Amino acid sequence: MKVKRKLYLKLVKRNSILLIALIVIINSACNNEKVSEEILVKVYVENVIIEETYGFNQDSLKAHKQLVFNKYKITEAEFRKELSNYSDNREKWESFFKKSNEYLNELKKGNTIN
């Protein structure tokens, strides 16, 4: 029982850190470029997966995140700005997270991630 509780508390703590990081990213946005919602969802989900996978190694974390930004041909500043715009509109924000969850489930079904 204690092992499960400790594991659960670690997951809650890690998810809290990710949420705080997301808020910091949103608040530090500074670019006016438009990014499609589809690209934004994919970049967000893939970055969350990278955070979970490489969070312990800052060099790998930065390198893999940059690969995602390059893959979708956007900058981190564009990503942050667009997330900030979404956070200002509750409907867009909820739609964004619904689509993010759908994309994550799609990746799981395709065995791209566990």
List the helices and strands and how they pair.
Blueprint: H1 2-27, H2 37-54, H3 58-71, H4 76-87, H5 90-109
Helix pairs in contact: 2-3, 2-5
How would you describe what is shown here?
With 114 residues, the chain is mainly α. The chain has one domain. The protein has helices at residues 2-27, 37-54, 58-71, 76-87, 90-109. Helix 2 (37-54) runs antiparallel to helix 3 (58-71).
Number of domain units: 1
Report the sheet-strand fraction: under 5%
Would you tell me the structural class of the helices and strands?
A: mainly alpha
Compute the separation of the termini in Å: 24 Å
Task: Evaluate the radius of gyration.
Answer: 15 Å
Number of DSSP strand runs: 0
The overall pLDDT average reads 80
Number of helices: 5
Order of helices and strands: HHHHH
Please identify the oligomeric state. Answer: single chain
The shape is: globular
List low-confidence stretches: 29-33
